[in-house]
From TrEMBL:
Taxonomy, superkingdom: Bacteria
Domain (HTH LytTR-type): residue spans on this chain: 43-147
N-terminal signal peptide: none
Protein name, UniProt field: HTH LytTR-type domain-containing protein
Organism encoding this protein: Lactobacillus xylocopicola
UniProt keyword DNA-binding, yes or no: yes
A Pfam family the protein falls into: LytTR
Keyword terms, alphabetized: Cytoplasm, DNA-binding, Transcription, Transcription regulation
SMART domains reported in the protein's UniProt record: LytTR (SM00850)
InterPro entries cross-referenced by the UniProt entry: LytR-like, LytTR_DNA-bd_dom
Amino acid sequence: MLVNQTAIADLKELFITVNTPQIDADSTNLRNNLDRFLNDQAITGYRAGRKKIIPYYEIISIHTENKAVVCETIDGLYQLKKRLYEIRELLPYRLFVQISSSEILNFSCIQEFALTRNGIYQVILKNGKTTYTSRRYMQVINKEYLP
């Protein structure tokens, strides 16, 4: 994919254009992800009665814990009021990967995928923590994130 940058002196506002020979699922997905990433760049988390706006780049993982959806950041855990499937729809595709029905990871926080003897991936994060994929999501991970 070719990436260009052009300076236009009389431009009032920064904008991005996606040029494509035809509008297809990939170009539409790219446009939607750019739009979400640039315009909806945060989610709201709660901890100890306080509300915090959490930018996407601070998110390490979002998972369920004791029947609640929590967001893990460098600062700790924050409870989220939305369900996991609702959050997945908000997050930019390719920047976040769903590894099971109960966990979504920030792709940039993943150090490596290691195939286990059971045939599932052990996911090793850059912060040293490990987690595992479910069989249901392995095919999507192989196709979309590990070509």
